[in-house]
TrEMBL record, chain A:
<dbReference type="Pfam" id="PF02653">
    <property type="entry name" value="BPD_transp_2"/>
</dbReference>
<feature type="transmembrane region" description="Helical">
    <location>
        <begin position="112"/>
        <end position="131"/>
    </location>
</feature>
<dbReference type="InterPro" id="IPR043428">
    <property type="entry name" value="LivM-like"/>
</dbReference>
<feature type="transmembrane region" description="Helical">
    <location>
        <begin position="292"/>
        <end position="314"/>
    </location>
</feature>
<keyword id="KW-1003">Cell membrane</keyword>
<keyword id="KW-0812">Transmembrane</keyword>
<feature type="transmembrane region" description="Helical">
    <location>
        <begin position="7"/>
        <end position="24"/>
    </location>
</feature>
<keyword id="KW-0472">Membrane</keyword>
<feature type="transmembrane region" description="Helical">
    <location>
        <begin position="80"/>
        <end position="100"/>
    </location>
</feature>
<protein>
    <submittedName>
        <fullName>Branched-chain amino acid ABC transporter permease</fullName>
    </submittedName>
</protein>
<keyword id="KW-1133">Transmembrane helix</keyword>
<feature type="transmembrane region" description="Helical">
    <location>
        <begin position="250"/>
        <end position="272"/>
    </location>
</feature>
<feature type="transmembrane region" description="Helical">
    <location>
        <begin position="53"/>
        <end position="74"/>
    </location>
</feature>
<feature type="transmembrane region" description="Helical">
    <location>
        <begin position="30"/>
        <end position="46"/>
    </location>
</feature>
<dbReference type="InterPro" id="IPR001851">
    <property type="entry name" value="ABC_transp_permease"/>
</dbReference>
<feature type="transmembrane region" description="Helical">
    <location>
        <begin position="161"/>
        <end position="180"/>
    </location>
</feature>
């Protein structure tokens, strides 16, 4: 239950976030904020299933489908993103079902599930590259500039508008996270993540529960990809799809904290600020360095702080308040051997 | 029926593609063997496996092209280099996580994937490089086969036989097989599990190194080259059953044929897509094939 104090804190924080672009108008900083909000939404979408032990490395694929299908429909069929985005989300959702159903039905879990989803994002990348006549291949793709109605084309030049859109999308992600957190599905999925057979014996429909959360997560990730494309107006297979993007999601969610609602957001803030400061500090020499630092940090975090920065901080603040769930306890043991 | 008549029955290009698929299968089987070995013994999946191959390919490129070392001298050095990398990967990343949930170990190797890719980007740049060795093309009837592919196939088979002999004829190999059957009891039998894990990791690395020496003959090396055969290796291992050597071997050739025959009708990338589609269909119709040796 959310206490009155926390609700008030959320309200004040949100009001401040909405007011921000009207007070502070530096375009570069607003741009960074928009990126942080969009990626936070993507990372939150990933953590929706990641927190239940369903580690997917296929989300780069869903994000790529969201971005490319929307842009392709706009350029080739003249279909407004208002229709293109739902279609792209449906496409990503359908793919998630096609891959997810046999995985869950036939109990493909753990290593197997990770490898199958890893291959999925690899294949989406290959398809985008292979259809280079339409998608521009690895050179990237640009949605055509709208000649008429900007709103219809979902293209805005104004950073403030984008900031508010991104803020709304991000907030939507956080609300969905809390909605799942308070639903029966959460208990079912936690039971599944701890012992699939026991959960099934207790009457949980394992396949259906897993499919539902996977579908939700894939739909949201595709939306993140489409919004990213509309904002940046330029996408390449490497920035919105593929294994690297999937790993980036895992990294941010783990660094921020997988089991708390704002964890992925904290992860996005840290990773994007890190990448930007490296870019400013080293200029074009920084190409590759940000990922090098990401990779080293990911390994260090998994070894020393698997609950992430925010997760560990919150744990320290309310040590006695709740007993960690079993799959979190396992992670904590790694952080503090012998406890 | 004469040879010519036999060739007339089959479409000549089809036969060529089938044979090329078998040749490709050899290298894929080598990769699958390395990954299965690591999984079978240490119960860890190195998702950075293809990136180790990429580093090995750069090693070959620099030794042969830059320092002018002969290919046949550079190859053992590369195998050694990647074997050391494999052992280091185990020592630095996997060993501290051995008691952690398996998914953490896998994600940590994902971090290593990032590190290796960006290390290559930072150090070598994103240019495509090749050895500059152009091996002759073998003509057989009306069909043409790349000598490089044939050589790779033979070397991959020799490598696999060597691993088989090592596993069955030496004490260390026997200990490796034993530890994959029962992790707990072997420590009581006086086998040093830490040492066995390190040796297995080095062996897995050596197989990646051998694959690197062979792949560099056929493909240009660049920091993201691992992405073009990494995913397919994972599919092979899942279809064959992780840790199942025979399953991985058979699945390698099945996938290689699909890629090769798919490539006959369009680009190589579509061959990969076809292989993935096949994989999904197989999961529906033969899930038991996937479930060999599941934990």
């Amino acid at each position: 239950m959310m206490g009155r104090g926390r609700l008030a804190a959320w309200g004040v924080g949100l009001a401040a976030l909405v007011a921000l672009p009207f007070v502070y108008r530096d375009p570069y900083h607003l741009h960074i904020l928009v990126l942080i909000l969009i990626w936070s939404f993507a990372y939150t979408s990933w953590s929706m299933m990641g927190r239940f032990g369903l580690v997917s490395l296929g989300h780069g694929g869903f994000m790529g489908i969201g971005a490319y299908v929307t842009a392709l429909l706009w350029n080739h069929a003249g279909l407004s993103p208002w229709f293109g985005i739902p279609i792209s989300m449906a496409a990503a959702g359908a793919l998630a079902m096609i891959v997810g159903y046999p995985c869950f039905r036939f109990r493909i879990t753990g290593h197997y599930f990770v490898l199958v989803t890893l291959a999925l994002s690899g294949i989406v990348l290959q398809v985008i590259t292979a259809t280079r006549d339409y998608t521009g291949g690895s050179l990237g793709y640009t949605p055509n500039r709208a000649s008429g109605n900007k709103l219809l084309a979902l293209q805005f030049d104004d950073k403030t508008t984008w900031y508010l859109i991104a803020l709304a999308i991000w907030l939507f992600g956080i609300v969905v996270w809390h909605w799942v957190d308070r639903s029966m599905a959460r208990y079912a999925l936690e039971a599944i993540s701890e012992d699939e057979d026991a959960a099934a014996a207790a009457g949980v429909n394992v396949t259906a529960e897993k499919l539902k959360i996977t579908l939700l997560s894939a739909l949201m990730t595709a939306l993140a990809g489409a919004i990213y494309c509309q904002y940046q107006m330029f996408i390449t297979p490497d920035t919105v799809s593929g294994i690297a993007v999937s790993l980036q999601m895992v990294f941010a969610a783990i660094v921020g904290g997988l089991f708390v609602s704002l964890g992925p957001t904290v992860g996005a803030i840290i990773t994007i600020l890190l990448a930007e400061s490296l870019r400013i500090g080293f200029g074009t020499k920084a190409v590759g360095w940000d990922n090098l630092v990401y990779g080293v940090l990911l390994v260090l975090f998994i070894i020393f702080l698997p609950k992430g920065i925010l997760g560990s901080l919150l744990d320290r603040l309310k040590l006695q308040r709740k007993v960690p769930r079993a799959h979190e306890q396992k992670a904590v043991q790694v952080a503090r051997p012998g406890t | 029926m004469g040879m010519q008549a036999f060739l007339d029955v089959f479409d000549i290009y089809l036969l060529e593609a089938v044979i090329n698929g078998i040749l490709l299968g050899g290298v894929l089987a080598l990769l699958a063997l390395g990954l299965n070995l690591i999984f079978g013994v240490i119960d860890v999946t190195w998702i950075c496996y293809a990136e180790l191959v990429m580093i090995g390919m750069y090693g070959m490129y620099f030794m042969v092209q830059y320092y002018g070392i002969s290919y046949f001298v550079a190859a053992p050095l590369t195998i050694l280099l990647v074997a050391v990398l494999g052992a280091a990967l185990h020592y630095l990343v996997i060993a501290p996580l051995l008691t952690a949930p398996p998914i953490n170990q896998l994600l940590a190797t994902g971090g290593v994937l990032f590190v290796l890719q960006s290390f290559a980007t930072v150090t070598f740049g994103i240019d495509f490089r090749n050895l500059g060795i152009r091996l002759p093309v073998l003509a057989f009837g009306d069909m043409n086969f790349s000598y490089a592919r044939l050589l790779s196939f033979v070397a991959a088979l020799v490598g696999m036989v060597a691993v088989y002999l090592f596993m069955t004829r030496t004490f260390t190999g026997t200990a490796i097989r034993a530890i994959s059957q029962d992790r707990q009891i072997m420590a009581l039998m006086g086998v040093d599990a830490k040492r066995i894990y390190l040796i297995t990791s080095a062996l897995g690395g050596a197989l990646a190194g051998l694959a690197a020496c062979l792949l560099v003959l056929q493909y240009d090396v660049h920091p993201f080259v691992g992405l073009s055969f990494g995913p397919i290796t994972f599919l092979i291992c899942v279809l064959g059953g992780l840790g199942n050597f025979i399953g991985g071997f058979i699945a390698s050739f099945v996938f290689a044929e699909i890629i090769s025959l798919g490539g006959l009708f369009s680009d190589l990338e579509w061959g990969y897509v076809l292989a993935f589609a096949f994989f999904i269909v197989m999961m529906f119709i033969r899930p038991a094939g996937l479930l060999a040796r599941r934990r």
